[in-house]
Design brief:
This protein is an alpha+beta fold. It folds into two domains: about 5-140, MutM-like, N-terminal (N-terminal domain of MutM-like DNA repair proteins, Alpha-Beta Barrel), CATH 3.20.190; about 155-285, Helicase, Ruva Protein, domain 3, CATH 1.10.8.50. It contains six helices and eleven strands. The strands form three sheets. The chain has a five-stranded antiparallel β-sheet with strand order 1-7-8-5-6. It has a four-stranded antiparallel β-sheet with strand order 2-3-4-9, covered by helices on one side. Strands 10-11 form a two-stranded antiparallel sheet. A hairpin with a 4-residue loop joins strand 7 and strand 8 (about 115-120). Helix 3 packs across helix 6. The longest helix is centred in the C-terminal third of the chain and has 20 residues, at about 215-235. It starts with a helix and ends in a 6-residue tail after the last strand.
């Protein structure tokens, strides 16, 4: 499933095509994706202007001048492509062919600026919903989400506050969307390795007895921000089915130090360990037990 950097990359690619433009024509080629499309979906979008396109955790959030908000989730294999005349948007540097199977083009937005935005989803695990803008942050999809890690509020003090007293493994705490929104398995593995912290470490050890952050908390917060920023800049990863809006794959995967590198030599300078894999809460964790403490 696309993680925060992938979704942010898609948002930046869609923004020039959608923000400020109206839905000149909306085509829903099936009545459902993961869930049924909202009642009167086409009619509620057609003619409306997108006043803002933002991201909340792993969701794309398009605010409309009708007082409603379109919430979109890519699921496992969802992607957008943009066509405008003979050109396509290019929010990445490495370009590879993508599948353009028309059978999986489920929703088409023809925008008033001439751009055509097509949502393609072979597995149909993504979804779209319409909610009142005034209630959007309390809508079922967005309610209860935690701190946004790229909004400037993620620091050592925030981690200490969120994790104080928690015996849960550090990786599990970082993946808890009620605490920090948008972090996923790939980038948590990468951040923990760069910070030299074991995914098994009790989350509460990042807070001192008086609630102040430890040096490890400060380092981890800075590392998370850096890893996410690098991934967004690189266009996200090209793990599984993620695609940029121009149909290309991202390339942050070339900078992975541990994810999906089981058996490889640890990239930490001076470390002679190997990357190993273990299962935590049903997910693969890639790490180096020699240098991650």
């Amino acid at each position: 499933m696309p993680e925060l950097p992938e979704v942010e990359t898609v948002r930046r690619g869609l923004q020039p095509a959608m923000e400020g433009a109206r839905f000149a024509r909306v085509e829903a080629r099936r009545p459902d994706l993961r869930f049924p499309l909202p009642e009167h979906f086409v009619e509620r979008l057609q003619g409306k202007r997108v006043t803002a396109l933002r991201r909340r955790a792993k969701y794309l959030v398009a605010e409309l001048d009708s007082g409603e908000t379109l919430i979109m989730h890519l699921g496992m294999s969802g992607s957008f492509r943009i066509e405008s005349g003979a050109s396509r948007a290019s929010p990445g540097d490495f370009h590879y062919a993508r599948s353009n199977e028309a059978a999986h083009d489920h929703v088409v937005f023809a925008m008033s600026n001439g751009a055509v935005v097509t949502y393609n989803d072979p597995r149909r695990f993504g979804f779209m919903d319409l909610v009142a803008t005034a209630d959007a942050d309390r809508a079922p999809h967005l309610a209860g989400l935690g701190l946004e890690p790229l909004d400037g509020g993620l620091d050592g003090a925030a981690l200490a506050r969120l994790f104080a007293g928690k015996a849960a493994p550090l990786k599990a705490a970082l993946l808890d969307q009620r605490l920090i929104a948008g972090l996923g398995n790939i980038y948590v593995c990468e951040a923990l390795h760069r910070a030299g912290l074991s995914p098994r470490r009790a989350a509460g050890t990042l807070a001192r007895k008086d609630g102040r952050p430890t040096a490890r908390a400060e380092k981890l917060a800075a590392t998370i921000r850096a890893v996410l920023a690098e991934a967004v800049e690189a266009g996200g990863s090209s793990i599984a089915d993620h695609r940029l809006t121009d149909g290309s794959l991202g390339y942050f995967q070339h900078a992975f130090r541990v994810y999906d590198r089981e058996g490889a030599a640890c990239a930490t300078p001076g470390c002679r360990g190997l990357v190993t894999r273990m299962t935590q809460s049903g997910r693969s964790t890639f790490w180096c037990s020699d240098c991650q403490r």
